[in-house]
Amino acid sequence: MDEAVNGTVPLPRIERQSPAGHLAERCAATGSEQTVTLYEVPFLAQVELRVDPGEERCAARTAGEFLGCALPEPGRWTGNGRPYALWSGPGWYLIVDDTATGRGLTAGLAAAVGGEYGAQCASVVDVSAHRTVLELRGPRARDVLAHGCDLDLHPRVFGPGNYTHTLLAKATVGLQQLDAGPTYRLLVRASYADYLVNWLLDAMHEHTAVH
Protein backbone atom coordinates (compact mmCIF):
# COMPACT_ATOMS: atom_id res chain seq x y z
CA MET A 1 0.00 0.00 0.00
CA ASP A 2 2.82 2.35 0.96
CA GLU A 3 4.59 1.55 -2.33
CA ALA A 4 1.46 2.51 -4.28
CA VAL A 5 1.10 5.76 -2.35
CA ASN A 6 4.75 6.64 -2.89
CA GLY A 7 4.53 5.80 -6.58
CA THR A 8 7.15 3.04 -6.43
CA VAL A 9 5.05 0.14 -7.70
CA PRO A 10 6.95 -1.30 -10.70
CA LEU A 11 5.23 -1.05 -14.05
CA PRO A 12 4.05 -4.33 -15.56
CA ARG A 13 6.40 -5.80 -18.13
CA ILE A 14 5.05 -5.47 -21.67
CA GLU A 15 6.06 -8.30 -23.98
CA ARG A 16 6.77 -7.36 -27.57
CA GLN A 17 4.17 -8.96 -29.83
CA SER A 18 4.71 -9.62 -33.52
CA PRO A 19 1.83 -9.27 -36.01
CA ALA A 20 1.44 -13.05 -36.40
CA GLY A 21 2.84 -14.16 -33.05
CA HIS A 22 -0.54 -15.38 -31.82
CA LEU A 23 -0.55 -17.93 -34.66
CA ALA A 24 2.89 -19.41 -33.93
CA GLU A 25 1.56 -22.62 -32.37
CA ARG A 26 -0.79 -23.27 -35.26
CA CYS A 27 2.05 -22.70 -37.73
CA ALA A 28 4.29 -25.12 -35.85
CA ALA A 29 1.56 -27.78 -35.85
CA THR A 30 0.86 -27.54 -39.58
CA GLY A 31 3.00 -29.14 -42.26
CA SER A 32 6.41 -30.80 -42.12
CA GLU A 33 9.88 -30.45 -43.59
CA GLN A 34 8.95 -33.16 -46.11
CA THR A 35 6.03 -31.12 -47.47
CA VAL A 36 5.83 -27.45 -46.50
CA THR A 37 6.25 -25.31 -43.38
CA LEU A 38 5.28 -21.76 -42.48
CA TYR A 39 6.85 -19.55 -39.83
CA GLU A 40 6.95 -15.86 -39.05
CA VAL A 41 10.39 -14.23 -39.01
CA PRO A 42 9.53 -11.24 -36.81
CA PHE A 43 11.20 -7.98 -35.90
CA LEU A 44 13.61 -7.72 -38.82
CA ALA A 45 15.16 -4.31 -39.39
CA GLN A 46 13.69 -2.90 -42.62
CA VAL A 47 14.92 0.36 -44.12
CA GLU A 48 13.66 2.00 -47.29
CA LEU A 49 16.29 3.59 -49.52
CA ARG A 50 15.11 5.99 -52.23
CA VAL A 51 17.83 7.34 -54.46
CA ASP A 52 17.67 10.68 -56.29
CA PRO A 53 17.92 9.94 -60.05
CA GLY A 54 20.85 12.30 -60.54
CA GLU A 55 22.77 10.77 -57.65
CA GLU A 56 22.08 7.09 -58.29
CA ARG A 57 25.65 6.10 -59.14
CA CYS A 58 27.01 7.83 -56.05
CA ALA A 59 24.33 6.38 -53.77
CA ALA A 60 24.63 2.89 -55.24
CA ARG A 61 28.38 2.83 -54.68
CA THR A 62 28.35 4.21 -51.14
CA ALA A 63 25.34 2.13 -50.09
CA GLY A 64 26.94 -0.96 -51.58
CA GLU A 65 30.14 -0.36 -49.64
CA PHE A 66 28.18 -0.01 -46.40
CA LEU A 67 25.98 -3.06 -47.04
CA GLY A 68 28.72 -5.28 -48.40
CA CYS A 69 26.73 -6.05 -51.56
CA ALA A 70 25.80 -4.24 -54.75
CA LEU A 71 22.31 -2.80 -55.02
CA PRO A 72 20.18 -5.23 -57.05
CA GLU A 73 18.96 -5.06 -60.61
CA PRO A 74 15.18 -4.93 -61.30
CA GLY A 75 13.36 -8.02 -60.08
CA ARG A 76 16.29 -9.20 -57.99
CA TRP A 77 17.74 -9.15 -54.49
CA THR A 78 21.37 -9.21 -53.37
CA GLY A 79 23.32 -10.11 -50.26
CA ASN A 80 24.70 -13.52 -49.36
CA GLY A 81 24.89 -12.68 -45.68
CA ARG A 82 23.22 -9.91 -43.75
CA PRO A 83 21.96 -7.37 -44.61
CA TYR A 84 20.39 -7.89 -48.02
CA ALA A 85 18.85 -5.48 -50.51
CA LEU A 86 15.57 -5.92 -52.40
CA TRP A 87 14.71 -4.02 -55.58
CA SER A 88 11.33 -2.32 -55.09
CA GLY A 89 11.27 0.04 -58.09
CA PRO A 90 13.46 2.49 -60.02
CA GLY A 91 15.81 4.05 -57.49
CA TRP A 92 13.91 2.35 -54.67
CA TYR A 93 15.27 -0.43 -52.47
CA LEU A 94 14.31 -2.19 -49.25
CA ILE A 95 17.22 -3.12 -47.00
CA VAL A 96 16.51 -5.98 -44.56
CA ASP A 97 18.75 -7.13 -41.71
CA ASP A 98 18.11 -9.62 -38.91
CA THR A 99 21.25 -8.66 -36.98
CA ALA A 100 20.64 -4.92 -36.53
CA THR A 101 17.97 -2.58 -35.23
CA GLY A 102 15.99 -0.43 -37.61
CA ARG A 103 17.34 2.69 -35.95
CA GLY A 104 20.96 1.53 -36.20
CA LEU A 105 20.64 0.41 -39.81
CA THR A 106 18.96 3.68 -40.76
CA ALA A 107 21.65 5.80 -39.12
CA GLY A 108 24.49 3.82 -40.68
CA LEU A 109 23.02 3.79 -44.17
CA ALA A 110 22.09 7.48 -44.05
CA ALA A 111 25.63 8.39 -43.04
CA ALA A 112 27.06 6.24 -45.83
CA VAL A 113 24.99 7.64 -48.68
CA GLY A 114 24.87 11.21 -47.44
CA GLY A 115 28.35 11.80 -46.15
CA GLU A 116 30.67 11.61 -49.14
CA TYR A 117 29.87 14.99 -50.72
CA GLY A 118 28.30 16.66 -47.72
CA ALA A 119 24.85 16.41 -49.32
CA GLN A 120 22.13 13.82 -48.99
CA CYS A 121 21.83 11.86 -52.24
CA ALA A 122 19.07 9.54 -51.01
CA SER A 123 16.18 9.23 -48.58
CA VAL A 124 16.62 6.63 -45.83
CA VAL A 125 13.57 5.74 -43.70
CA ASP A 126 13.06 3.07 -41.03
CA VAL A 127 9.94 1.08 -42.03
CA SER A 128 10.50 -1.90 -39.72
CA ALA A 129 7.08 -1.58 -38.10
CA HIS A 130 5.23 -1.54 -41.40
CA ARG A 131 5.67 -5.21 -42.32
CA THR A 132 6.42 -8.62 -40.95
CA VAL A 133 8.12 -11.46 -42.79
CA LEU A 134 6.69 -14.94 -43.32
CA GLU A 135 8.87 -17.84 -44.43
CA LEU A 136 7.28 -20.61 -46.50
CA ARG A 137 9.57 -23.50 -47.32
CA GLY A 138 9.54 -27.07 -48.55
CA PRO A 139 8.90 -29.11 -51.71
CA ARG A 140 5.23 -28.08 -51.81
CA ALA A 141 5.71 -24.38 -51.07
CA ARG A 142 5.34 -23.40 -54.73
CA ASP A 143 2.06 -25.35 -54.94
CA VAL A 144 0.70 -23.53 -51.89
CA LEU A 145 1.46 -20.13 -53.39
CA ALA A 146 -0.16 -21.16 -56.67
CA HIS A 147 -3.54 -21.30 -54.90
CA GLY A 148 -3.61 -17.51 -54.63
CA CYS A 149 -0.85 -16.06 -56.80
CA ASP A 150 -1.05 -15.57 -60.58
CA LEU A 151 2.70 -15.06 -60.89
CA ASP A 152 4.56 -17.73 -62.88
CA LEU A 153 6.73 -19.36 -60.21
CA HIS A 154 8.27 -22.03 -62.43
CA PRO A 155 11.99 -22.31 -61.61
CA ARG A 156 12.90 -21.23 -65.13
CA VAL A 157 11.02 -17.95 -64.57
CA PHE A 158 11.29 -17.20 -60.84
CA GLY A 159 14.10 -18.71 -58.82
CA PRO A 160 16.71 -17.99 -56.15
CA GLY A 161 17.73 -14.34 -56.30
CA ASN A 162 14.36 -13.11 -57.58
CA TYR A 163 12.16 -10.60 -55.75
CA THR A 164 8.96 -8.90 -56.82
CA HIS A 165 5.74 -7.34 -55.59
CA THR A 166 2.64 -9.37 -56.33
CA LEU A 167 -0.82 -10.26 -55.06
CA LEU A 168 -1.31 -13.33 -52.89
CA ALA A 169 -4.90 -14.08 -51.91
CA LYS A 170 -5.68 -10.44 -52.86
CA ALA A 171 -3.06 -9.11 -50.43
CA THR A 172 -0.05 -7.20 -51.73
CA VAL A 173 3.20 -8.89 -50.72
CA GLY A 174 6.88 -8.74 -51.49
CA LEU A 175 7.91 -12.21 -52.68
CA GLN A 176 11.56 -13.24 -52.29
CA GLN A 177 12.96 -16.66 -53.22
CA LEU A 178 15.93 -17.60 -51.06
CA ASP A 179 16.90 -20.99 -52.45
CA ALA A 180 15.85 -23.87 -54.69
CA GLY A 181 14.21 -25.79 -51.81
CA PRO A 182 12.21 -23.73 -52.48
CA THR A 183 12.23 -21.26 -49.60
CA TYR A 184 10.19 -18.09 -50.00
CA ARG A 185 9.98 -15.02 -47.82
CA LEU A 186 6.78 -13.00 -47.94
CA LEU A 187 6.92 -9.39 -46.81
CA VAL A 188 3.40 -8.46 -45.77
CA ARG A 189 1.84 -5.41 -44.16
CA ALA A 190 1.41 -5.92 -40.43
CA SER A 191 -2.33 -5.31 -40.68
CA TYR A 192 -2.69 -8.17 -43.21
CA ALA A 193 -0.48 -10.69 -41.40
CA ASP A 194 -3.29 -12.44 -39.51
CA TYR A 195 -5.38 -12.80 -42.67
CA LEU A 196 -2.52 -14.05 -44.82
CA VAL A 197 -1.16 -16.55 -42.30
CA ASN A 198 -4.62 -18.07 -41.87
CA TRP A 199 -5.06 -18.21 -45.64
CA LEU A 200 -1.67 -19.91 -46.10
CA LEU A 201 -2.37 -22.45 -43.36
CA ASP A 202 -5.68 -23.35 -44.99
CA ALA A 203 -3.99 -23.66 -48.40
CA MET A 204 -1.33 -25.92 -46.88
CA HIS A 205 -3.83 -28.54 -45.69
CA GLU A 206 -4.23 -30.05 -49.16
CA HIS A 207 -0.49 -30.64 -49.32
CA THR A 208 0.12 -31.77 -45.75
CA ALA A 209 -2.88 -33.99 -44.97
CA VAL A 210 -2.10 -37.64 -44.27
CA HIS A 211 -4.11 -39.90 -46.59
Automatic annotation (TrEMBL):
It comes from Lipingzhangella halophila. InterPro entries: SoxG (IPR007375), TrmE/GcvT-like (IPR027266). It comes from the Bacteria. Keywords: Oxidoreductase. This is Sarcosine oxidase subunit gamma. The keyword Oxidoreductase applies. SUPFAM superfamilies: Folate-binding domain. One of its GO terms (molecular function) is sarcosine oxidase activity. The keyword Oxidoreductase applies. Its EC number is 1.5.3.1. Pfam families: SoxG.
